[in-house]
Amino acid sequence: MNMQTTAVMAPPAPSGFDEMKLPVVMMRDILLKTMFRKNIDMVTDLARSGAFAGASDPGS
C-alpha cells in the first residue's frame, strides 16, 4: 500500500471583505449566526469574540 503524507497548510486569511468573495447576504447571515450563537448584542463584544480577524480591544 502506497501511503504518502504531505504537509497540509491552511490558506492565508483574507485581509478584507472583498477578498472573501462571498455574497453580502451570506456574510450578513454568518455575522447574525455568530451573534446569536455567542449571545452578543454589542459591536465591541462581536469584535472581541474573534468574528473579525485583527480586531483589537479598545479597552486595552
Short note summarizing the structure:
With 60 residues, this protein is an all-alpha fold. The chain has three helices and no strands.
Q: What would you say this structure looks like, in words?
A:
This protein has helices spanning 17-20, 24-37, 43-48. By secondary structure, it is mostly helical. It has a domain at 17-48.
Name the descriptors.
mainly alpha, elongated, single chain, 60 residues, 3 helices, disordered C terminus
Query: What's the shape?
Result: elongated
What fraction of the residues are assigned to beta strands by DSSP? under 5%
Strand and helix order: HHH
Write down the overall mean pLDDT: 78
Helix and strand content put the structural class at: mainly alpha
Number of strands: 0
Query: Which ranges are low-confidence, i.e. pLDDT below 50, for 5 or more consecutive residues?
Result: 56-60
Tally the helices: 3
| Rg, nearest Å | 17 Å
Outline the biggest β-sheet. Answer: none
Helix proportion range: 40-55%
| Spatial separation of the terminal alpha carbons | 55 Å
